[in-house]
Write a structure and sequence with these properties.
CATH class of the largest domain: Mainly Alpha
Radius of gyration: 24 Å
Number of strands: 0
CATH superfamily of the largest domain: Cytochrome C biogenesis protein
CATH topology of the largest domain: Helicase, Ruva Protein, domain 3
Order of helices and strands: HHHH
Shape: elongated
Mean pLDDT: 81
Strand content: under 5%
Largest sheet: none
Length: about 120
């Protein structure tokens, strides 16, 4: 009887650890994804119904043995690259990565040229 109780306690501990690992993986993956409804929050932080569905989809996929990359790719295919907080660098995402830097550089150039005109003229 003692062996049965010890085995039951051990099985419960292993199951609890596996559930905790799954929760950690879901949370980490959900932090990398942008909520497509509110867009200023990650899927992990959002309470929007779509974000809740996305978290449930992630949990079910990971529990079924699918990889994080498979799930990430599936969500990108469904919602586009904007679902990722760190989209991959390729021809379609170059404006996302370098657009802000280019806008700041153009603004600086305009400011500099405007300042030079004021110095030389009335």
């Amino acid at each position: 009887m003692r062996k049965f109780i010890a085995l039951t306690v051990f099985a419960a501990a292993v199951t609890a650890q596996a559930a905790e690992d799954l929760d950690t993986r879901v949370e980490r993956l959900a932090q990398e994804l942008r909520c497509v409804v509110c867009q200023s929050q990650s899927v992990a932080d959002s309470n929007a119904p779509l974000a809740v569905d996305m978290k449930r989809h992630l949990r079910e996929g990971l529990a079924a043995g699918r990889s994080e990359q498979e799930l990430r790719d599936e969500l990108v295919q469904r919602y586009g690259e904007q679902v990722l907080y760190r989209p991959a660098l390729h021809a379609g995402t170059v404006p996302l990565w370098f657009g802000p830097v280019a806008l700041v550089a153009i603004g600086g150039l305009v400011y500099w040229r405007h300042g030079r005109r004021r110095e030389g003229g009335p």
